[in-house]
Amino acid sequence: MESNNSDDDNNNEIAYEFLPYFRAYKDGRVERFFGVDRVPTSTNPNSTVSSKDVVVSPESAVSARLFKPTTVGQNQRLPVLVYFHGGAYCFGSPFCAEYHNHLTSLVAEANVIAISVDYRLAPEYPIPIAYEDSWAALKWVASHCNGQGPENWINDNADLQRVFVAGDSAGANIAHNTAMKAGEEELAGLELNGACLVHPDFASKEGDVPEAWFFACPDTSGSSDPRINPAVDSRLGKMRCRRALVCVAEKDWAKERGLFYYEKLRKSGWTGAAEIAETEGEGHVFHLFNPNCENAVNLVKRRAPEYPLPIAYDDSWTAIKWAASHSERGGDEVWLNDYVDWDEVFFAGDSAGANIAHNMAVRVGLEGLDGARLVGIALVHAYFWGKEPIGKEGDNIMGKAFAENLWLFVCPSSSGSDDPLMNPVKDPNFSKLGCKKVLVCVSEKDLLRDGGWYYKEELEKSGWWGGVVEVMEAGGEDHVFHLFNPTCENAVAMLKRVAAFMN
């Protein structure tokens, strides 16, 4: 009788393995040792975050796990996070404990709606299937733009003008490529605001490509493939989002690849803002396996909007009260004790800072400021907005969308552009501005110009007890031009005008 040992040896010949997580045999068998568990969903009203599973595409059987804060109010709109798990394109799942727990923590911290995508895995479904499934998931999210999509959680609570993509390792690669595709193919009703790439899986600066990539994408050209090497992608500057956060870890094999990606993105001509965050003393995707360590907690916090409004208003009021505490000449700061006339106090700021200056003046009018007298405020190119466009605001479609979306991003709890913090005219306390004079500086080419004039006109009509509202307009200039060209004639003239206003 002949032995079958040779057949058994052939059957067990390994094509690729990524231990201790994955092994594939040449006969087509696959063994996955990570991501095969399935944590149940929960809609317990006593839990911080609720979750449920949905089918994204019945044709391909692609699904996703949805997460939302349990206490989100009816019709309250939250930012949306579309998340792609890691796993060398071959393993991992939104349903396993590591990713379920991570997304739960992230949703609780960031106060967002999250969709964790269960894209199909290689080698059974080689790349580009993972990209196609992930794009299908983003399109599925966009299908809810009119409030008539298949999923009520998104219809009722998702703000599709504040959508972010994120992922770790191979998932970060997918997030990048999804943002790139968004730059080429329009998603009606959805605005992609940012991409967060955690320990991203890309080619190195020298062109070295991870072995897992060749296994998952057998038809790749290697280092010349822009999907794994964004540095060779001539379209990199067209990535469709305004912000990118790249997270790297000190001891991660992929650290230099993340840093290289960050450098190339910044130099690509892309007009967004890129940030880099490095975690010391940690390795690749450490946050999944030690989620309660200090660095993992900080990583989750780093990906949430760090200090959303009203924190900036609270901090500014604290600083004002600290300064006023020197009015009795017994404060901590000698300069304020010895040189300040506390009967001649002014607030000033530009852009968002002008918004803060105005709101601080309203607070003075409501609460007073012990030991100090607010004489006036100088508002330079003030960041005010409203649902109804003023003047030519509606003509600049992109600028209008940016102004509205930026406000909702920094103040996710806001009711929208007519929030009194953003639209002073809608504030019932507008007339209680706690100063006697106001200087409004505007620029001819600034999107916020007409809003500045409107502020002046409405303040005069409001019944405000103060005396004078002045406007200075700089011809031919744009938003905060004085910061970038401080010695030009108009910048010097505006500086002199503000100085005269205070004297």
Summarize the structure.
This protein has 503 residues and is α/β, with parallel strands linked by helices. It contains 16 helices and 15 strands.
List its salient traits.
Alpha/beta hydrolase fold-3 domain-containing protein, AB_hydrolase_3, AB_hydrolase_fold, about 500 residues, 15 strands, four-stranded parallel β-sheet, elongated, eight-stranded mixed β-sheet, alpha/beta
Count of beta strands: 15
Broad shape = elongated
**Secondary-structure-derived class:** alpha/beta
- Using only C-alpha atoms, the radius of gyration works out to 27 Å
Low-pLDDT segments: none
Biggest sheet architecture = 8 strands, mixed
Portion of residues within helices = 25-40%
Number of helical segments with 4 or more residues:
16
Strand order of the largest sheet: 4-5-7-6-8-9-10-11
Overall average pLDDT? 92
What is the strand content?
15-25%
Q: What separation lies between the terminal Cα atoms?
A: 109 Å
How would you describe the overall organization of this protein?
This protein has 503 residues and is an alpha/beta fold. It has helices spanning 5-11, 97-110, 129-142, 152-157, 170-182, 211-216, 255-266, 286-289, 294-303, 311-324, 334-339, 352-367, 397-410, 449-461, 481-484, 489-502, and strands at residues 14-18, 22-25, 30-32, 49-57, 62-69, 78-84, 113-118, 158-168, 192-198, 243-249, 273-279, 345-350, 374-380, 437-443, 468-474. It has an 8-stranded mixed β-sheet with strand order 4-5-7-6-8-9-10-11, with helices on both faces. The protein has a 4-stranded parallel β-sheet with strand order 12-13-14-15, with helices on both faces. α5 links the parallel β8 and β9 (192-198). α3 (129-142) packs across α5 (170-182) and α10 (311-324) crosses α12. The relative contact order is 0.07. The model has no long low-confidence stretch (mean pLDDT 92).
